[in-house]
Amino acid sequence: MEALSCSALTFQRPSDLASHCSGGSFSVLRLAFPSSLSKCRRRHCVSVPKASIAVEQQNQQTKVALIRIGTRGSPLALAQAYETRDKLMAIHSELAEEGAIQIVVIKTTGDKILSQPLADIGGKGLFTKEIDEALINGEIDIAVHSMKDVPTYLPDETILPCNLQREDVRDAFISLSASSLADLPAGSIVGTASLRRKSQILHRYPSLNVQDNFRGNVQTRLRKLNEGVVQATLLALAGLKRLNMTENVTTTLSIDDMLPAVAQGAIGIACRNDDDKMAEYLASLNHEETRLAVACERAFLETLDGSCRTPIAGYACRTKDGCLFRGLVASPDGTRVLETSRSGPYAEEDMVKMGKDAGKELLSRAGPGFFNS
Length: 373
Known about the structure:
Layout: E1 8-11, H1 14-21, E2 67-71, H2 75-91, E3 101-106, H3 109-112, H4 129-136, E4 142-146, E5 158-163, E6 171-175, E7 189-191, H5 195-204, E8 209-211, H6 218-226, E9 232-236, H7 237-242, E10 251-252, E11 267-272, H8 276-283, H9 288-304, E12 312-319, E13 322-330, E14 337-344, H10 348-366
Parallel strand pairs: 2-3, 2-4, 7-8, 7-9
Antiparallel strand pairs: 1-3, 4-11, 5-11, 6-9, 6-10, 12-13, 13-14
């Protein structure tokens, strides 16, 4: 297989991943928490390759893959790609054969530029653009994304018909010195790459110092925390669960304390709009309850159409009576936070309408200039 122009690393089996990592190209941090916060126990290793190196297929005898899965190269992205692969193999016997599914790692703009806040380098599409291009060009067959990274618009040549069952949507608070945000002394530095988290933290705890360029994968952020660069950080609990790293969690924040990002915890899988076979495979994986919740939240986000500098949060969930949606917009400094909610039937048309209606309300309440600040 020809290497992708954006630099790719391909794997066909978990053993490929393990053997590549055995050379020590990636080190994994494990945090040792004070006994007052949690009981330390042996950490489980998470090993990943460096995704910037192009590797040719060594075994020319391997049969042509039936599905090539495109993904970013972070440990979390790879975990999501392998989750997708495993689900496909479990449902379709022809995909359980050796070499039937190939994982292709693609380095995105968001992975390459780590020295600046996401808002300063474009925000939308930073983690999907190169993967979308590979999909359109036929270099991969399906693309696995964290849904919160996917812009509300899709390239004309692609569709995103599938969401895997959603993981826990909450955020995790992680610190070596405090058990919660409320316990952090004034002036403590909290690291995050999310304006949504920054604004909600500062709204409740204005005495804290929130650094909004705390970027890198989960392991990198935990290493920086361990080195004392920051006193605390917040990460999506879903990602920590998928990486089997929940032992690092100090406290899980409630939805009331930290409304999640639109589509947080959801995995989306895209294919070309003219590829009926891939669409059929993806239909077999789709979790409809998750897809409808994500559609509601993304309708809210699309209606707001805020700049990448606007903190926005939204969450739709099933209740005994149908669907409850909660939405939020805020100023980056947390001095102004606007919230709303909607309830209605758990059906696509109604839920999309709820998201749009909530977005229109907050646009009206925010007033001119709020989303351009």
